[in-house]
Amino acid sequence: MVIVMEKHAADASIEHVVAELSTRGFDVHRSTGSDQTILGVVGNVATIDPREFELMEGVQEVVRISEPFKLVSRTFRREKTVVDARGVKIGGDDVVVMAGPCTIENETQVFETARRVARAGARVLRGGAYKPRTSPYAFQGMGVEGLKILRAAGDEFNMATISEVMEIGQIEGMLEYVDILQVGARNMQNFNLLSALGQIRKPILLKRGMSATIQEWLLAAEYIMSGGNYDVILCERGIRTFETYTRNTLDISAIPVIDKLSHLPIIADPSHAVGRRDKVMPLARAIVAAGADGLLIEVHHDPDKAVCDGPQSLFPDQFARLMDELKIIVPAVGRRL
Amino acid sequence: MERTDAEAELSRLRQAIDRVDDVIVKLLNQRAKYAVEIGEIKGVLDLPIYAPEREKDVLSHVERASEGPLQPAAMRRLFERIIDESRRVEREASR
Q1: Which of A114, A130, A286, B33 is the most exposed place for a label (fewest CB within 10 A)?
Q2: A231 lies in which domain range?
Q3: B77 touches chain A (CB under 8 A)
Q4: Residue A136: what pLDDT?
């Protein structure tokens, strides 16, 4: 951390800042320029709230050099983390595609969708049993009965399973049926839930909150990891912008940025980002081309009859066509499908 | 000056700098040993490591003592770094 003092700041102001840093056990590198003094702060500066120093007399600006996150950082771990979900390796050479319906509705729907996406090359089966719906009157999900169907379909077609956890009370009941627990965008900063997920030993997929900065998102992952659960997958799903034509704006740039900042696998969800089926395929191609470790895509065997998010779900045939296209793109970026 | 003479002179001057550096390093460590002792005393007396008035005295002392070619401001900058490191050793010694 660097503290830049105002031009011609009084000696007393500079001394006050140095004294405060010194009392707190930090080493200070003082550098006096012709009219401006700069103080380099050495030590565990993650514990400092920069605002405290910005408010001090004579301080012009406080600049953080090191990132406020630790465990998620590439500085902490240089090699990429490979998350193993029932034998499916996410973050390795393979681009892993996770697909399935938004919501688990019944056995026929899940099995039929699973059969089609597995045949096309999807390795992880998604399906929501607890749904965070914007309206309290919308379908709220099948609960554990839905998870049993998801597990049975996963076993039948040799796929790992992923489903969203919404509250701490659901975690234990999900462990038996689900290989990856998903934290939705609306829960990204539900710190109690994140801490609880840090205590289990199962992969977590952490979606980016729709108004979250990359730093806030990584700090949310830090919550999970600080509890000892290091198997975290990050998932970009679009952020709020001024654009209204699409539901959210997929932040493609987050993929290379995360890859630089963090060792955690990064995937993206084009379905929730645009909310329209016809835009899902081009975005999915762009996500893979940008270097993502995987995709999370909604597919429904009969989208027109879907109880939730039908308009953004791909038809199984479209999904198969997308997978064929990805087979061309993936080797071009040095990966496998 | 011939090119070969110039090269020989450069090498001689660099060796001279190396010898001076040896002395500076020894003296810096001698200075640091005093800082360690001061740190221990500050620990006993429960005094703060950072003593702004004393630092000011040290800096103006070396500024005055500098006869050039280093400007007083340059000497101050060099000693600011020496003081930074002294504070560190004092802190470690005071624990």
Answers
A1: B33
A2: 83-332
A3: yes
A4: 79
User: Which tens digits make up the pLDDT trace of A222-279?
Assistant: 999 999 999 999 999 999 999 988 889 999 999 999 999 999 999 999 998 888 888 9
In the predicted structure, residue A132 carries a pLDDT above the cut 80:
no
Chain B nearest CA to A200, separation (Å)? 39
Give the pLDDT score at A76: 82
CB contacts of A23 in chain B (<8 Å) are 48, 50
Decide if B56 touches A, using CB distance below 8 A. yes
3-state secondary structure of A29: strand
Instruction: Identify the bridge partners of residue A90 per DSSP, sorted by sequence position.
Output: A83
- A50 pLDDT more than 90: no
H-type alpha helices, A24-157: 50-54, 107-120, 144-156
The C-alpha torsion from B67 through B73 and B78 to B80, rounded to 10°, is 130
Q: How far apart are CA A140 and CA A50, in angstroms?
A: 43
Q: How many residue pairs from chains A and B have C-beta atoms closer than 8 A? A: 33
Which residues of chain B make contact with A28, given a CB cutoff of 8 A?
A: 84, 87
Distance CA A199, CA A228 (A): 6
| CA–CA distance, A219 with A60 (Å, rounded to integer) | 27
Inter-chain residue contact A29 with B84, CB threshold 8 Å: yes
This model of the complex carries an ipTM of 0.75
User: What total of structural domains would you count in chain B?
Assistant: 1
The CATH number given to whatever domain includes residue A293 is 3.20.20.70
Answer for the pair A181, A202: CB distance below 8 angstroms, yes or no.
Answer: yes
